[in-house]
Write a structure and sequence with these properties.
Elements: E1 15-19, H1 24-31, E2 36-41, H2 49-54, E3 59-61, H3 64-70, E4 77-80, H4 87-96, E5 100-103, H5 111-123, E6 128-130, H6 138-148, E7 155-161, H7 188-192, H8 218-227, H9 229-234, E8 242-247, E9 259-265, E10 274-279, E11 301-306, E12 309-313, E13 321-323, H10 325-330, H11 344-354, H12 362-381, E14 385-388, E15 393-394
Parallel strand pairs: 1-2, 1-4, 2-3, 4-5, 5-6, 7-10
Antiparallel strand pairs: 7-11, 8-9, 8-14, 9-10, 11-12, 12-13, 14-15
Helix pairs in contact: 4-5, 5-12, 8-12
Length: about 425
Amino acid sequence: MLGGPGKKPPSEKLNVAGVGVGNQGGRDIDSVSTENIVALCDVDDKYAADTFKRYPRAKVYHDFRKMLEKEDKNIDAVVVGTPDHTHAVISMMAVKMGKHVHTEKPLTRSVFEARKLTEAARQNNVITQMGNDGHSGEGIRLICEWIWDAAIGPVRQVHAWTDRPRDYWKQGVGRPKETPPVPDALKWDLWLGPSPERPYHPVYAPFGWRGWWDFGTGALGDMGCHIIDPAFWALDLRSPKSVRAITTSVNEETFPKTSIVEYEFDSRGSMPPLKLTWYDGGLKPTRPPELEPDRSLGTHGVIFVGDKGKLMCGVCASSPRLIPEKKMQEYKLPPKTIPRVKDHMQNWVECCKTGTHASSHFDYAGPLTEMVLLGNIAIRAGQKLYWDSKNMKCTNYPKADEYVHFEYRKGWSL
């Protein structure tokens, strides 16, 4: 039965399920509401209540495993918007069942998970997308085209920064001693998923989990896939040869309050060796002398340092400009050669239907996530690491290999 003038017939729509549908996950579901939302899963009835109300025809579940098993024949694609520590187990199950998958950034919590999930998506021939929506934007395409046009010459340094965690979540703290009761609306054991068991506390859920090693990936994991993305694409980066972190005190519970992470890359084709430096917790690189006094570095950003000049942008590659502005005005813009994308989520939807690669598919997003998360390994190791990407090992400090992945709680597997 057709949907009427200007409407897609139901047969042309995807049947989409969502896992983790409060906050960002709910916004992701809204972004694909052009399709049939057939099932929604969340472990927190209160946090997800608004999304449940917006899609009253969707079947509601608490356990994604039960949802995928019971609704297998009814689901074409899955949107994953849970905390970082459950991205991989949910996405992997969906991928192995042949479902197309959109997973929020960072793709996974560990380097090992990112590698295995990327391989599984390729083997199962499903359409994938990571939620670094800036990758579908105009800014990142302009940056690539300008750098490939040698607008600033060979790039040897990149500086990237964020103000996170700011006051969004706690870092540099120990585990709380209080053990308040679990809210009636929350299925705490399911929220923990593959991570080690611990008592409930509101500092973890529904939002503060980002700062805890067992659940999140810190400021770097939260913002790195947005902010480092243009450098990763434009400069043809993959795995660094080494990574080193300088931080405030590190404990076994939470990420440090501030970090500086230095990645070193070998030459790539005609591109020279590169050093990329990440700053978080409000730290920033030295202000470029070319930047006019009335212009701010901003709370998030990137500076590309080339032999012939500098290029600067904001978060998600927004507002790219050569600096100073005079140089931007004098620059003859090259042709726009990279295909443009109208909308990140809808790009994934259309690619699911056509069988083509989405903008930030896992073969791109997986290596980006690996590179970002290597910084967290260096933070925990406390020393410079030399990385063997093929074997996922630190060649000079084997003890750091224990941070490449984490042991899953009994009953959970990848």
